[in-house]
Amino acid sequence: MTSTRTLEAPTRRSETASGAIQNGQFQPEIQGLRAVAVLVVVLYHLWPQRLTGGYIGVDVFFVISGYLITSHMYRDVRDGSPIGLLRFWARRIRRLLPASIFVLLVSLLGVALWVPSTLWEVSARQIGASVLYVQNWILAGDSVDYSALDNDATAAQHYWSLSVEEQFYFVWPILIAALLYLSRRRAAAGRTMFTSSRSAMIAGIAVIGAVSLIYSVTLTSQSPSVAYFVTPTRVWEFAAGGLVALIFGSRQFQGRRATAFAWAGLALIAFASLAYSGSTPFPGWTAAVPVAGTALVLVCSGSTAALSPRWWLSRRPMTFLGDVSYGLYLWHWPLIVFAPYILSHDLATLEKVLLLLASVLLAWITKLTIEDPLRRGPLLRTSRRAYAFTGGGMAVTVALCFGLTAAAYVSPGGAPAAELGPCYGPGALASGNDCGPVTGNEPPNPGPALVAKQNTEPLYKGCQTGLAGTDIVSCGLGVEPDKAKATVAVVGDSHATAWFPALDALAAERNWHVKTYTKASCPATTAVRVLPAEKNDVNQRSCVAWNQKVNQQLVADKSISTVFTAAYSTAYTFASPQDKALQDPAIDGFKDRWRGWMAAGKKVVAFDDVPRTNGEYVPTCLAKNPDNALACAMPRPKAYPDNTVIGRAGEAMGREGVKWVSLREQFCDPKLCYPVIGSIIVFRDHSHISAEYARALVPFISSRL
Fold first, then answer.
1. End-to-end CA distance of the chain
2. Integer Cα distance of 516 and 333 in angstroms
3. Is 488 helix (H, G, I), strand (E, B) or coil?
């Protein structure tokens, strides 16, 4: 019979770094817990609308890793063995890197075969970052980079959590060694507190974990996208596992109460998986739920009777999935990314099930042919060979990433503008030019990848205020102020920024100096712009503050004679500001702002909205359909919906002196709005016009002025 009195009668165990064998005795429940973690993640990636919080599976892995690695190192210390940093890292290399590098190389090949060339650079960059185990920092940087916010998921995106783990494996032994050194120093100085290796490790890890938790909560509230990826916000989860290992040692509680606690732990993991979502602040204090659940399962083995957690976690299907969990995590995401490109449609339910089975099969094959042979065989047996393999594998992968990036930007060899004459760009839409196909007879030059690169390498870098900023950022275009016949300004959101190439060229022709005042996702209006997708009103408030500061500066600057403005007005809804009720905030907000500029003695030139697309990056769509550009076109009624509020405001304000520049006939014919016109790609992403097309529109803008 099992004990029903207390959580006593613990069993003795001593885990290896793999978490499976101790004193010759297999501990299957940890492998089963790994299976739970990887299934939660994989099912979340396949059905994100069903298992909305499945991302917490990586947190379960983090706790397990902290538990196993800390117990392993403490056992060495307890037995009188040195930690042996180089040997420790060599073991991790044998265990993790062969399969990891192999999957990255296969993913690199898959990108070249199936992914549009517009995504080769970002894919190569993330694969290179993954093989160097800094992928999480790359994604953290992208999460606050406005030009990277809409990046498509790459085949290596899931390596962010592996990067966090590898960073943990590198730093954790050093921290443990430092704590042991301090404990010996205290003992030599005759002090009694925290002089044993165990007490020093517990105290040190507790402090490190507490600092990390505080930082995690703080950063999650301030910048949740960054907090999700960076390593310091996750350290406390590893620390929690380490503390469980040190406090409870080799004990594992049994009995009915322990069984209840183990079920409670699994219930916490299940609750977080089902109840959490993308709107849950994570990994702040909410991460404590899956972390606590994992800790409970690790401590409370419970009863071995049928239907107990230990019984379920020890069944062969669970231990098998635990055995292949690493490979399953590596393979499932590239298959999810590549499959829609191969099939040319989104995955259906049956296809997702087949993909899951294929991921398990690949994981099993990888374990048998790569993981086990290289971990146990002679090839990487010595530390020197392990490190040589690491350096060589990383170097080859990074070199191939550079090669793939270079291949993306090979010129398509289309005819230059001078050879195309009046049929280059918007002239192809003019019936009198007799140009043939609107898209042109020559392939676009520059091609899709080079046009898409304008998103990551802006032509006017540093000339636009970010999403959360309120500082005025301004650049000068056209001619120098002392040589200019007039000074004009351009004001608005990123769609105003997209007109920079055209205004720069126009200003050079007319001897203007242009002052730029643009901010990401912030139209120049007195109304409050609203984006339902935003989780808080930080960007909304920063837009209001920035608008007020820019308006004051514009009105006070007597040198500015004309203000050009543009906005992606169909992307927002609008509300009245706190100090004024607007009858129609969407239209009246623009009118109010323009009237204020005109009252200050300035002319106003407002650009119409550019046509809407199908929401996909246009260069990517063209790269996927190199012989059928019309697959990326939009019917004109959908491209120009009725709610183009800046358009309605501009037309209404024409009587009051606003110069309204509508270029719809240079984007569309009566039926379609085109992704390529006269061998120029029109958009650099899903809504911003390309620099080449903006410049090609200069004659048409000039004629309307």
1. 92
2. 42
3. strand
| Residue recorded with tokens 């538990």 | 67
Could you tell me which of 162, 288, 141 has the C-alpha nearest to residue 226?
141
pLDDT for 429-472, tens place per residue?
Answer: 988 888 889 998 888 888 999 999 999 889 999 999 998 889 99
Residues 6+ apart with CB under 8 A from 514: 476, 477, 478, 487, 488, 489, 490, 503, 504, 507
Q: What gap in Å lies between CA 583 and CA 664, rounded to an integer?
A: 28
Helical segments of 476-584, H only = 494-497, 500-510, 538-556
Which pair of structure tokens corresponds to residue 294? 């994992």
User: pLDDT digit string (tens) for 312-334?
Assistant: 998 999 999 999 999 999 999 99
Strands (E), 511-578: 512-518, 528-530, 560-566, 573-575
Residue 578's pLDDT band (boundaries 50, 70, 90)?
A: confident
- Is residue 476 within a helix (H) or strand (E), and if so which, with residue range? strand 476-478
One-letter amino acid of 284: G
Q: Which residues contact 565 (CB under 8 A, 6 or more apart)?
A: 490, 491, 492, 496, 524, 594, 604, 605, 606, 607
Decide if 426 contacts 664 (C-beta within 8 A): no
Distance between CA atoms of residues 514 and 474, nearest Å: 10
Greatest distance between any 2 Cα atoms in the chain: 97
Distance CA(442)–CA(684), nearest Å, equals: 19
Record the pTM.
0.85
Q: Give the DSSP letter string of 216-230.
A: HHHHHHH-HHHHHH-
Q: Where on the phi/psi map is residue 462: left (φ > 0), alpha (ψ -120 to 50), or beta?
A: left
Q: How buried is 387 (Cβ within 10 angstroms: 0-12 exposed, 13-18 middle, 19+ buried)?
A: middle
Q: For residue 481, what pLDDT is reported?
A: 92
Kindly give, in sequence order, each residue whose CB lies less than 8 Å from that of residue 294, ignoring residues fewer than 6 positions away.
33, 59, 60, 63, 64, 241, 265, 269
